[in-house]
Amino acid sequence: MKFSHYLFDFDGTLVDSMPYWSQKMLNILNETKTPYPENVISIITPLGDVGTAVYFRDVLGVPLTNAEMYEKMDAYALPCYRDKIPLKADVLECLKRLRAKGCSLNILTASPHKALDPCLRRLGIWDLFDNIWSSDDFRLSKSNPQIYLEAVKLMGTVAAETAFFDDNLTAIRTAKEAGLYTVGVYDVTAIDFRCELEATADRYITSFSEICSLSE
């Protein structure tokens, strides 16, 4: 099956960042001694910083303002995105191969631009993408099917001709509902949901070396 348009998640898909992303959120819960469900990371991953702050305050009862939570998130995470977080194995080679084939490469992530953009530039892959979107750009979370439809429209294509890659079960389920071809991506932090992700996604990969066959 050939695709001309690719839409990628960032954290846990293109980069090995989920331990850092998760820790910035858990720090808030642990510092405030707020009880949280065992699957809290899976719940908040599609929400982004804004949605997570709302969930923490309104659902879990974290006794901080949104601004206070953002400050704590940034203090921990921004240096990691700027200086530490690496690409996943085979990502650079596969993105370059897809680009050489004339494919349109795009990012849709829950991470804010202040973390996303410096990381992409440091890793040398910024220029490989036609569009780099945070969910904040749409004022929608990745658990809302509309965000995928709006991204597809801006790419100038249709949902059925777009391959979407994500390591998060909720995002894959929602993108599939929107009509995109979904590819589940292995990440060690989502190991507990691997079987369900494999069953939900149209395709599942454990390595980016498998991606190029989609365009051949």
Summary keywords:
alpha/beta; globular; 216 residues; single chain
Structural overview:
With 216 residues, the protein is an alpha/beta fold. Helix content is 47%, strand content 12%. It has helices at residues 18-31, 40-44, 48-60, 66-83, 91-100, 113-123, 135-138, 145-155, 169-177, 194-200, and strands spanning 5-8, 104-109, 131-134, 162-166, 181-185, 203-205. It has a 6-stranded parallel β-sheet, with helices on both faces. Strand 4, helix 9 (169-177) and strand 5 form a beta-alpha-beta unit. Helix 3 crosses helix 4. The longest helix is centred in the middle third of the chain and has 18 residues, at 66-83. The radius of gyration is 17 Å and the shape is globular. The N and C termini lie close together (7 Å). The relative contact order is 0.19. The mean pLDDT is 93.
